Amino acid sequence: MNMSTLATGRPNIIITGGAGFLGSNLAGDMVKTSNIICIDNFITGNQKNIDILLQNPYFEFLRHDITRPLDFDQFPELKKFQIKAQGIQSIYNFACPTSPSNHAKLALEILEANSSGTKNMLDLAKEYHAVFVHISSQHIYGKAMSSQPIKESYLGAVDPIGPRSAYDEGKRFAETIASYYKRQFNLNVKIARLFTCYGPKMAINDGRSIPDFIFDALNNKDLIIYGDEKTENTFCYVADIVDALIKIEKSSLAGAVNIGHYEKYTLKNIAERIIKLCESSSVITYKEPDWHVASYNIPDISLAKEELGWFPMVDIEDGLLRTIEYMRSNLRIYQI
What we know:
Elements: E1 12-16, H1 21-30, E2 35-40, E3 59-63, H2 83-86, E4 90-93, H3 107-128, E5 131-137, H4 165-185, E6 189-194, E7 197-198, H5 209-218, E8 223-226, E9 232-234, E10 236-237, H6 238-250, E11 256-259, E12 264-266, H7 267-277, E13 284-287, H8 302-308, H9 316-329, H10 331-334
Parallel strand pairs: 1-2, 1-4, 2-3, 4-5, 5-6, 6-11, 7-10, 8-13
Antiparallel strand pairs: 9-12
Helix pairs in contact: 1-6, 3-4, 5-7, 5-9
């Protein structure tokens, strides 16, 4: 991309779901070199995630539901980005409630975001010839049929009518419509299938182990593992996820690509590390998984390594320390 041909000298980037965990972390990185248009309707996003960014002249927030068409003329604050002159260069589509505990309560919102919401953003990308990076999920694979790492070629085993189906099948449909736009309109579409990730700005009580473990450890409460001593997963730090997404946008990669960490840890090991790092008196307890707890899939990231030159750099100890420090410093945000 030749910056000298852009009216503002910086690319215009849309990040939908930009007040969420991943979207706000990506925005914080990309605002250093780009004009960021952050879109969120706050169904699950949190304004606290973007408070600092709101002070940045290269960042603008639109409270908008992407299931409705987007008219830039309704937002005079965007004039400085000169959209009519230079258009939109890239769209990162995160918008979708992701909390496992909300998959039933927000089922319709999830389905709408992945259908009409994704279509509206694809139409916008088509209008401006923008790169479209769709953030998908490991859960399009459903339940793993073996313990082997999952390749992108695995077609999945998803229950289309189960209590998790709005999210799992919604993400699958979003990939379908994005792929259709790529074929039909020659749109530059990328699909990133994210596996379990963690880091600063992640919500608690969302059905995700690491932020809940840290919050409880900081408050000397029991750490609850939904499973047993052998339950394991992989964990990729958010900075590595952001790096991967930026590499995907700039790449010539066609098709979907797995993004996640390749090292497996038992949840017991992660909980023990967190207790030690927090100098906590917490103890570990075990419970049967609730219906919304997804199966933990292990990614094969060979394609990302070969095509993007990407692999996770932040080890688990460093990532946990960074996340603990953020949550400790912002504990008031997490108080219930």
